[in-house]
Amino acid sequence: MAELVTIPAYLLRNGSDGGYANAPAIREKDLGIWRTYTWSDYLDNVRDFSLGLASLGFGANDKLSVIGNNRPRLYWGQFAAMCLGGQAVPVYHEAIATEMSFVLAHSEVSVIVAVDQEQVDKVLEIRDQLPNLKWLIYDYPRGLLRYDEDILKSFEEVQALGRDFGAKNQGYFEDAVAKVQPDDVALINYTSGTTGSPKGVLLSHANFVRTTQAYLDAEDVRMSDDFLAYLPLAWVGETLYGTCVSLMSGCATNCPESPETLQRDLREIGPTGMIGAPRVWEGMLSTLQVRASDSSPLKQWVFNYFQDVAMEVEAARAEGRPVSGGLGLKHAIGEFMVYGPLRDQLGLRRARWCLTGGAPLGPDVFRFFRGIGINLKQVYGMTEMTGLVSVQPDGLANSDTVGPPCKGIEIKVDEGNSELLVRSAGIFKGYFKEEEKTKEVLTDDGWYRTGDAGLLNENGHLVVIDRAKDVGKLSDGTPFAPQFIELKLKYSPYINEVVAFGDGHPYVTAMIAIDFEAVGNWADKSNLPYTNYVDLSSKDVVRDLIAEEVRKINIGIPEISRVKRFLLLTKDLDADDNEVTRTRKLRRSFIAEKYGPVVEAFYGGAQNVDLKLDVTFEDGSRSQVDSHLTIQDAA
Predict the structure, then answer these.
(1) How many CB atoms lie within 10 A of CB 142?
(2) Which of 147, 162, 391, 453 stands the most exposed, by the fewest C-beta atoms within 10 Å?
């Protein structure tokens, strides 16, 4: 059998090969019922939609965007475009219309597949800014039947057109697939834009196929596996670890009904594999901690005791120390009383491998999940490397590294600034319409400059310190990596986001955004009335609560790096306000400018600071909010 070298080629194999055709490919939950599609069903749906697009004039090098949460038809839409030699351009569905317009216009999208009325309305609002747009196709018809727009069609309409077109043009689909070449661009993935406008990363079929194979060589993925697909389609990790791993290994992708039902759906599926950004694992731990604090004193004690046991066992394993007989016995008891039931609650009892990536995960959060028996491992990658550089092997996972480079991937460290450089078959083809920026990140001999500072340890495992441009020094010359402080503080269930300052200053300070749900739960139990986020975060007792959390975390940090002053923000950091990216990465330069008066107050000895903050609402409208922030010295 000839080697398969493109994404459509694997789809054809799965849909027609007897070993794959009748196996589950994708499931979706709708109205409380799971529906399963086999690989044969998958191929039929993609073929019909692809031919429908062809009948509407879509062809090679045309761009199709999908907007919405994880639904089979959005996956089929992307594959359909690739099968015709076109390119998929997934967009973050949470983006407001004005944010969406940049990506859709810049990428020259001609067809958009939107999941529902909300996303259709966003596109129609910016239609005059999208000169290349020809067709807007929707999945769910609810609320759209009376729309009278010349570019609007339902998914079923396009598939019906495809069946008619296919009957008149026998072999058209297979011929189109055969023309797709490995070096053809399959996907334009826009970066999260931490330092400016997003850049369109051109990723080829060969990038995905060879990078996916490198991951499959490193991980035990089986055809019988179930993968939970809930992360944004616009994140390269969802395409690599969900779509392409499923396609090449034959395992099944499972789409939850909605973000609100995710935890329930997770328990129903009980996936064998899952990837989550750090905020997912932090949120899970925070939920468990809040539930424990709501329980009886005895149950609180049991949870806290065996949590400490789990952390101690995992610390010993990570450091290569033997687990003593007494500690091992306690852990075995904990497995029966706490750890097994916790994995059941989370829906992860069947999980053989779980990944965290996209940003660093705090060491305490990492150790907790591994300590309770979840094989959580860190993976490192970036969009320009097709999402993969390294992954931790089973049994060699620890919070300090992100594992060894995967097969065929090379890493070296720039001696000048400790920047990591990577070379592999996954290196992107360039930034769309950005030749100069492409040259800035690629060396003449084919190495990609990651922008991350790091090193390879004595075992050949990669250690990522921070973004190279963010690593600085305190005024006395002590190295300062803000992520280290931020991850430590975010272990607290009451803290959602942290921005640490210290570069060029005599000590470390922090802006903290509370976890509204966890602190609200604490306030309810304390009979503390509040109206909203602003009111809750402004209360003295809440500030005292966070001060105690800072004090406890400071104990485990070297004295010179401890947080000396902090304040509570009156709003969470928000992607709509450009403070974080859609993947929750801090936009540090923007934050430093926006909150400049706070930094001045921190180091000027002030006890209060007044700010006028711009706030963006879900409909894209803006307003200004006056904030009076109190600065507190940390113990």
Answers:
(1) 8
(2) 147
